[in-house]
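Why run this: before we spend reagent on co-expression, it is cheaper to look at a predicted model of the complex and decide which construct boundaries make sense. The entries below are exactly what would go into the expression plan.
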Amino acid sequence: MALVGDAISHSLLPGIAIVFLISNSRSTGLMVTGALGAGLVTVWLIEFIHKKTRVKPDAALGVTFTTLFSIGVILISVFADKVDLDLECVLYGEIGFIYFEDGKSIFGLEVPRPVIRMAGTLLFVTLLLVLFYKEMLVTSFDSGLATSLGIPTGWVYYGLMMVLSLVIVFSFESVGAIMVIAMLIMPSVTAALLSDRLPHILVMTVSFSSFYALSGLHLASWLNCSPAGAMVVSGFALFCMVWALSPRRGLILLGIKKYRHKKAEQFAREL
Amino acid sequence: MKTLHGNWKYFCWIGFVFVPGGDVFAAKIAELSNTQIGEQLVRFFSLRDPSVRYAIIASLLLGTCCGLLGSFIVVRKLALMGDTLSHAVLPGVALGFLWTMTKNPMAIFIGATIAGLVGTVVVHWIHTTTHIKEDSAMGLVLSGFYAIGICIFTMIQHLPTGNKAGLDKFMFGQAAALSTIDLIMIAVITTISTLLILLFYKEFLVTSFDYGFANSIGMPARFFHYLLMLLLAFSVVVALQAVGIVLVSAMLITPATTAYLLTDRMHRMLIYSSLFGMLAGVSGAFFSYLGNSLPTGPFMVVAASGLFTIALLFGNRHGIIPRWFRHADRTRRIQIENTLKAVYQIRERTQFKEDGVSLQQLGGQRNLPLVETAKEVKKLLKERYATIPKDKGGHFQQNLKLYLTPSGWENACRIVRNHRLWELYLTESAHYQPDHVHDDAEEIEHVLGEETVRQLERNLNFPIFDPHGKPIPSIIDLGESV
Amino acid sequence: MSPENSIPLEIHDLTVAYHKKPVLYGVDMEVPAGKLVGIIGPNGAGKSTLIKSIMGLVPPSSGWVKIFGETYRKNAKRVGYVPQRESVDWDFPVNVMDVVLMGRFGHIGLFKRPGRKDREIAMACLEKVHMAPYAKRQISNLSGGQQQRVFLARALAQESDLYFLDEPFAGVDAATESAIIEILTELRDRGKTLLVVHHDLTTAKSYFDMLLLLNMRKVNFGPTEKVYTYDKLQKTYGGRLTILSEIAETRTKQSSDIPLEK
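The model came back. Tokens follow.
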């Protein structure tokens, strides 16, 4: 499932491009519409291809998102004069420019619009998570059980994908299409190395993500490189550290145990 | 009937999206290039421009190479490995760039290959040492490596000596910008891949199909797995400049998946897949040639996806539309056979004294309203299974009756016989209760072949009556016309 | 190395661990030639792992295995293998003949293609399992029993002296089951040695000459009439011997067989 996020993040491009082409504006509402539409089409196409034919889900996913992404790139490059979308921004994201966007004043503070949008999304997603926590838990763990409990698994799945599209579209301008996937899976995978309980994992992901953001921005200003890239790099570094040092399943611990086991075996053989 | 509507809607939808889109595109592209499409076509295919020549040769070679290797990764369910590899090579490209500070193809090639291989090894490592699933591991490596690459690249761009031109080409590819060395490298990699696949076809086949078995016969299965990964890394790296990082995986997956829909044999899949790859490559190169600064990769991918869509819809074996037609055909045949059976049952009630059957009787037997019954009767008439006599003026008679033709009667007897034989088989040999067998027989009667019927008869000792005491029409009945 | 003098399979102190969790502990055994051996044990007893580690598919953490007195690699050609049916993707683009020909790959050598003789052998093996009419059929269009027969034909095409079969009777119809056991006994009568992972206690007694009772370690190994006792089975299944439920399962399996499949 992890790569569905990657697929959606690529496939949103044509949705956004088409919305720009038709409306010629950058309003939030239209962006959301385009993103939701594209997200739905992606998920539906993947399901359609692998359910109706013998094509395996991974190939179906690969075919779908590359096709949609290509259509998006073609639209943007052919109608470059009409579509005010920077391909570079799509690929690398430019969180550094957010400050220069026109802002809105809240309590006398000048807050850039993207920040407001993201804050809104955060609130919305948190609200959904609180409301539907147990439904999501059951559906993710055992969709058969969920169906027998009367939870509409199809709706939950498509709903999740819609929310995912929503989150991704707002992350677009900050981290770009490709690195969104890192922000989606890195915190949770890192947390999963440290704990088995979903509530703990959820809390950890929040703190990890904030760590990525802060350390990434510092790293970027230090190395003078892309902030989005630096954020993901710091996330990857954190993962590698946890992977090596985790007290439960860490590589180093594993190595030590293996070594001790071997020693003990040798000892046993000598006896 | 529902499926019919669904399908037409689907068709219209495709038409809506693609047809107007195509027009707009063509107009737009022509406008950009300020020349006629026809003229461009001639220029493109006469190979006058050296850059066009390069682009075409490169696309043909890459199509072959990606098609061959892609087939193996698709059947191994490693489709997303190509994507992971292509993103994971970015730091290697950047470091290769940093090493020489020029776009030295050799340095970039070495750096990229190493980075790609490290990426695949890390995926494997994460997967085996933790409980993280393989797809999550791929996502991690894909985005993590890519981000490292992006960081190094942006650092280079901010260096006083850095040149900004390099990066974009790697993102979406520009087949027309390939240099001679690039082309030579593509040719070498394609030749090596093709040769190795030809030489080790049976080894690649058996390790892909059944890894454990391959090992058990003493084949170094792990070696062949890593050989495939190495070739994959090579081909991804050389394809980068033509197709671009984001879309290389499509050139690996899409033609191979298209071929997978069309054939059931691995060697044919390899051939089809490389043909589709070449076709997609050349059309992509052509379309990007039409515009001034259009990237090649996306056009290649869209061309490949177009082929995939055609195969998905019309493919002989697994295509959706042929399959739908087959299904519709079967449904129609079952309907006809049910009507024939109904005629038989009506006639049976009068001990076959009455030949004709009225529409009302038929509707009653099949439990259908009169209009629907008429539709069913029309199907019988069309197949010449039944006739409705007309009077001298060519009009239907007052209370019209349906008479089965000899072939119609034969089919009716056959279906009833299948039904009753199966019921008898279920009660006699499988010990079902007589009141539990009807529904099963309703389905089986349409699929029993001649061969099986003969066998059933033999097993049941040529029975005369079904479990409900009704006579089973015999072969002699089949021959007897009305 | 003359095959007559050496023991087909010799295992010494074989221990296997997955993620540092032991699955098999110190298994010792010697299998004499010309025996049909059943490997019996509860779920998770390490039956498949034993076979896989003998063939080097799962690296053992200690101990060694000898096949006809040599390492596995050296004598791989003399070993035939039937993996579990679910271990492969049956949508793979090959037909029945292609799969059976794979059994010849160990004999063909590098760079070479299967020749006419290999095809003849493969066809003869298909005949033996009554699958010759299906030679050109794509493998996804086969029933479970037919798939198992194809795998058996592939093993026959290997023309080996020692065979490992991993759950060959799982999910097949009664007709296939008896066809398979007939072929296995015939191979045994020709002096081949066969090790079969089996989960059905009720049939184990009649099928096999020898039994290996396995539950993470060797509980017992010997001639069926000596090993198949209540005490020893009890020991293998750790007091939760479930013959009754096994019998019930077999009965439902037999009554739900598709009657028309030959």
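Chain C touches chain B through 33 residues (CB under 8 Å). Residues 4 and 33 of chain C are 8 Å apart (CA to CA). Bring this page to Monday's planning discussion.
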